[in-house]
Write a structure and sequence with these properties.
Layout lengths: L1 E18 L5 E21 L3 E5 L11 H13 L4 E7 L10 H16 L6 H11 L11 E5 L4 E5 L6 E5 L7 H6 L12 H7 L5 H4 L7 H7 L1 H12 L4 E4 L6 E5 L2 H12 L4 E4 L7
Length: about 280
């Protein structure tokens, strides 16, 4: 058996650059992992792919990204073996945290190890991209500046000296719904997010007016509760706060441990809330 932790990510900034001819959108964003994870347990089987999940609302048929990942990998390598996948969910669904994509990537790497499959990193990334635009990111550790649909990745070290308080308001946001309501504004500048993060890491107040999430106006208009979470993060001492992905999770960066813990305690009475220590990384 192989057991893996599939960590969530946050988007530190999300700029929608343009709508492509194929209907997708090009984005600029920074992916950064946080300390909340699903657990994936893989057991070899004679043939086929089966899934069991501890969350009843998660599908366990061919629509599950883990199943798609396993079948695509077995087909690509010509393996006749199978696998049973046990999925223990902790990352909220529809929260902008990439839980399903992280799970799928963990299946790709874990199944390669479990069945001793021969496949190159580039081939594995190609399979990952077909499953989801942000799945390739989770194949490697570290933070990454992502472009294109999210599959063009430049990994870099981002050691954040802040407590990250992550709040999930319990509202499921559909990414296609959010993209469908986005209206491109050519007057909005496209910043180099990696450069901004690294140059002003010690002074995140500089990020407040420069780093944005283009989905926030759309989501906040439809769900004021999510906007209020961001406002409360700032009121309770966050140096920087932003919605992750298409929502609905919102995170705040805190210099002060006491403020971070007090904020997390406040939100945890109502919402699933997670805290990541300064400098944390999955390794």
């Amino acid at each position: 058996m192989v057991e893996l932790r599939a960590y969530a990510k946050i988007n530190i900034g999300l700029q929608i650059v343009r709508k492509r001819d194929d209907g997708f959108h090009d984005i600029d964003t920074v992916f950064h992992r946080v300390d909340v994870y699903d657990t994936i347990k893989l057991t070899p089987a004679e043939s086929g792919v089966t899934i069991k999940c501890d969350t009843p609302t998660i599908p366990t048929d061919d629509t599950n990204l883990c199943a798609r990942a396993a079948k695509a990998l077995l087909d690509a390598t010509g393996s006749t073996k199978g696998v049973h996948i046990l999925l223990e969910k902790r990352i909220p669904v529809g929260a902008g945290l990439g839980g399903g994509s992280s799970d799928a990537a963990s299946v790709l790497t874990g199944l390669t190890e479990l069945l001793h499959l021969t496949i190159s990193p580039d081939e594995l990334a190609q399979i990952a991209e077909k499953i989801g635009s942000d799945v390739p990111y989770f194949l490697r550790d570290g933070s990454a500046y992502a472009k294109g649909k999210g599959e063009i990745l430049s990994y870099f070290e981002l050691d954040l000296p802040y407590w990250i308080v992550l709040v999930y308001p319990g509202i499921h946001i559909s990414t296609p719904w959010a993209y469908g309501r986005f209206e491109f504004n050519p007057q909005l500048p496209i910043h180099n997010l990696q450069k901004l993060l690294l140059e002003h890491k010690a002074l995140p107040v500089r990020w407040v007016n420069s780093i944005r999430n283009d989905f926030e106006p759309i989501v906040f208009e439809a769900h004021e509760e999510i906007m209020r979470v961001k406002e409360v993060l700032y009121r309770t001492g966050a140096d920087f706060a932003l919605m992750s992905g298409s929502g609905s999770s919102v995170f705040g960066l805190f210099r002060d441990e006491r403020y971070a813990n007090e904020c997390a305690d406040f939100f945890s009475k109502r919402y699933p809330t997670y805290i990541t220590q300064p400098g944390w990384n999955p390794a």
